[in-house]
Specification:
Length: about 150
């Protein structure tokens, strides 16, 4: 099963929208994500429906944030994307009447539900402004490291 990167990709886009200060077209976002603009529009639609982004057509149009990053959590974006699968573990169904398989599937499903609930609770505490702040910190550290004079000692 292939992983679903929509959540991380849309978080990436939202932070770029905030930092860019101007609308980004689906073509620009598609180029940034190395994907088709149609995929961008389809994926961004859920974010627009929830009021996190807006789009304008025509010259100078494109996608913009409709709310500040400090009002959007990872959980908000996850839900707007129709709750993509978090884990790719699936129960076996080769021997549906086998009591061992039933017990194994039950244990795995219980653990998956607990892990998902924990992750969703954590998502609710992380604002996109927190992620953007971490990015800014990393950029400052990288810039400081590159501009620091070499120590001849």
């Amino acid at each position: 099963m292939r992983g679903d990167s929509r959540l991380s990709r849309m978080l990436h886009v939202l932070i770029h929208l905030e930092r860019g200060g101007r609308p980004m077209t689906s073509e620009m976002i598609g180029q940034m994500l190395n994907t088709n603009p149609v995929v961008v529009r389809r994926t961004m639609a859920g974010l627009r429906e929830q009021g996190y982004v807006q789009s304008e057509k025509g010259h100078g149009g494109g996608w913009t944030l409709a709310r500040p990053l400090n009002e959007i959590t990872l959980l908000d974006v996850y839900v707007a994307l129709d709750r993509p699968e978090m884990f790719c573990l699936v129960p076996s169904s080769d021997h549906a009447e086998c009591l061992v398989e039933i017990a194994v599937n039950s244990a795995l499903e219980d653990a998956r539900r607990e892990a998902e609930a924990l992750l969703l609770r954590r998502f609710a505490t992380i604002r996109l402004s927190d992620v953007a702040g971490d990015f800014e910190r990393r950029m400052s550290e990288r810039f400081a490291a590159k501009s620091a004079p070499d120590d001849p000692a």
